[in-house]
Amino acid sequence: MTETDEPREYEVVVVGGGPAGLQTALYTTRLGHDTALVDRGGGRAAMMLDTHNVIGVTEDTSGNEFLETARGQLEDYGTDIHRDFVTDAERLDDGRFRLVGNEGEFVAERVVLGVGFNDERPEPPLPRTGKGLHYCLHCDAYMFVDESVYVMGHSDSAAYVAMIMLNFTDEVDLLLRGDEPTWSDETDELVRAHPVDIVEEELSGMTKRDDGWLESFEFEDGTVREYKGGFAMYGSNYNTTLFEALDVDLDDDGTVPVDDHGRTSVDGVFAVGDITPGHNQIPVAMGKGAKAGIAIHMELREFPKSLDEIRAEGAVSVDDVPGISPGLLDKAKQFNESHADD
Question: Where does the record place Basic and acidic residues bias (predicted)?
Fold first, then answer.
């Protein structure tokens, strides 16, 4: 950003172009609020080779195709989409928020942070994400019905995921990869009472099929085990930098506590998606985004005026309505005209 550039001003700025952020921006834009979506690209959804558990979206839709379709919808409605990485944020004296990116600055009345987390990846050898390496049990367990599956990790979570996978298959290995278990004594007793094969040896090699999917792992003791795929359970790194800059409260695990509509401990700052507690699922994230968008609309909408405002300022004139910016008004008219015969 040059010294002559002015920050772009919006009612709402959504940081993060995953399903939660996209859904929030969809609602705030369609409800008449000037909205920007600032997205650095990538993210967990973009890594998906197939989209699972999203009604109306078929399995052959990749994460990138899903996100690209959503961005196109937003642009049709009038959302401004910026490819940028927001590195800092602050509250201004007038109560608005200033967001600083690598390419520009943004000022907003409401900020929505859908910045998610990064899965902690184990050391190689590893198959490609989506072709034998998976992170979402509820998304991908269905893929491994009656197949040989592994779970990598040594925590309580890893042990429980291994036991949960017995609902789908009778061939489950828990790969410690040379680490000592860190799960509790109770979990140790429980997992050893289930038909889960605990493999202690570290991996020494991997074989892939011609289509790129995992075929087998080789272990340091010379054994080879075949798998269709499995899950890595090494924890998550939550992206909390912007929340910390705005003095938003965090939970001990790095997630951001919110109310039922995504409000954080700081007025005007909302959190949606995987950065908040709960299931990390696309439909869940979209629901959180929708609820945040509606809550923001309830806070920002022009009408109805309160009785105090009417008594102080007088009745609302026809010249004062509609309560939507000229730019979004034009976009809405264009959109509705183009879809009039649909």
Answer: 330-342
